[in-house]
Amino acid sequence: MISIRNIVKEYAGHRALSGVSMEIEKGKVFGLLGPNGAGKTSLIRIINQITAPDSGEVLFNGEKLNQHHIAQIGYLPEERGLYKKMEIGEQIVYLAQLKGLSQAEAKLRARKWFKKLEIESWWKKKIEELSKGMQQKAQFVATVIHEPELIILDEPFTGFDPVNAEIIKNEILELNRNGATIIFSTHRMESVEELCDSITLLNLSHKILDGKVKEIRNQFRTGTYIIEYEGQGVQVSSDAPFTALSETIADDHTQLKLRIKEGRKVNDLLHYMLPLSNISKFEEVIPTMNEIFIQAVSKQR
Amino acid sequence: MNKILLIIKREYLTRVMKKSFLMVTFLVPVLFIGMMSLVVYLAVNQGGLGDVKKVQVVDESGWFANKLQSSKTIQYSFATDYAATKKTFVKNGYDYLLYVPVTMNKIQLFGESTPSVINSGKIEDELTRVARSRRLSEAHIDSAVLANAQTALTVEPKQIGENGETDANVMAKYGIGLVCAFLIYISLFLYGAQVMRGVIEEKVSRIIEVMISSVKPFQLMLGKIIGVGMVGLTQFVLWIVLTAVLSTAAGSAVGSKMAAMQQVQTAQQVPGVKTAMTANADKMEHNKVAAVIHSFESLPIAQIVLCFLFYFTFGYLLYSALFAAVGSAVDNETETQQFMLPVTMPLIFTIILSQSVIVNNPDSALSVWLSMIPFTSPIAMMIRIPFGVPPLQIAASMVLMVLGFLFTTWVAARIYRVGILMYGKKASYKELAKWFMYKE
Fold it and tell me: Are A124 and A234 members of one domain?
């Protein structure tokens, strides 16, 4: 869907993107991650043709990015807002028209969306009379009303209470099921694991990690496991196939966090433990995206 | 193109539909006419406000007793005892005491408050009139002969051009040129500032990024400028229409009042020197007015109107582009000050010069240059046009104006496209230069 090739972007003495490349697959949810100032917004602005790269190119469905693609992109910026003095319905219709819809079509779809998000009765209200959450909903409608192939959401859940965040999340997933590709920029990792198929991690203008969420997590496996058994204090001898990392004892249970030694297998571990204890729980510790994020970023520093 | 139209439509409608727009559009002519009517009414009808000054006169010279004529605003009455009157005139309800000693070399006007310049002037005039009339009759000069002798001649300025002679009354040219220049000056500020405020509003409300993911910054800027410009035109047309309608109505009301007043005044006047002189002055006044009206007819009205429209349009476009750039560079209106000065300087400079240098010497080198430079020409040229400007100069000025507009819009757009996305950074001129240099 989107191929980003070797993008370089510099602002007066400050490098925002240095040679960033990535592929965004059609119909997937793509996470664009990175700490503040990593270059996420710069990249998004380039895809939106708000700015142009100093070098490198962006392909949209194999075609060099141009003005015709604007109607196929929906963008919810992090810094968002609407004309305060304008009626909300009128405003959504206006924004939809700027994306190329006819007035009649824009009105029809806006009504439909307002009904769906249960903000119908607010149609004639001015933006300044609405609550923040209500404004965000309206803004979301403005982003997706022209049924874009590509939806770019920059921190879409800020400003929503948990209930409305859930509503919006479900809408995003539904749009994705109906074929829209979604680029999702955030530094809130829990939503990444939930939503994204694949991610790219930017830091200090460089791409430092990318791939499918599952694969990345596998890649960051360290052979760490948690084993829980009844009773207390199994003495771990030095020829054990693992090294104990930590041990917590609660009531009649012990939880042991351990790392398998190089070249040994999970089965060796179980063989060793079985005669010594009554195992009640055994699982692998796979790092969360949050841990991966912190690890990758701090490694680069 | 279609997008620009949408933007123009929104910018236009949201402004025109505002209550404040309707208020200003309707109130300005009402206030204007109201004020003018009031001024006229007061001028004609001073006595009507009950502001009559009563003057007690003690005349020891014997020249003025019972000869000073009371007017609508000043009433004279006469007494003989200076010392006594001086003590009691305030108590007796008089405003002033006029004391004329025997020698007439030290006439004094006493009052509880300092007599106003106008009132003491009026009293002086009346004293002079009486004294002169007495001296004339002492010299055996017939006042009618004197009135006849006071001839006022007028010079009729004519301009010789290719089409023969044309009337060249300077008054009308002064007037029309200055009025046009002022209208342009005021509207550049008025609507330029509206463009700037619109840009700041988009930045402050953070809608700007949503907008420019749909349209190019240049389209947004141009749409706003044209939309606001059309608001300005609408307002002007409405003002002209409303003022015309209202002034006709007010004019007929005030006019009838004035006619009535004049009849009363004439009836009050006593035949003699004064009447003859007034009549003569009236005639002169009438001649002047007729001459002005006549010379308005001889002005190149079509040329003036066309030039006005041209310079109004392009001057507005040029300046509002600059105002838009200023708006894009700041986060709120209070920060605009530092950038406003250089933008408004040429305008203020020209409007000050136009009232002195340009209007008095429309063909001087300075005037010609000012009417060529695009930043000053909308005002300077409008002053010069009524006096006749060689077609070549007009053409050159217009070409330069269009080029200047294209150039400033290009510069402004380059600053604008970067500025609208900048938050929190306090912009300096160095910063603006950097923005200008940015590639796409």
Answer: no
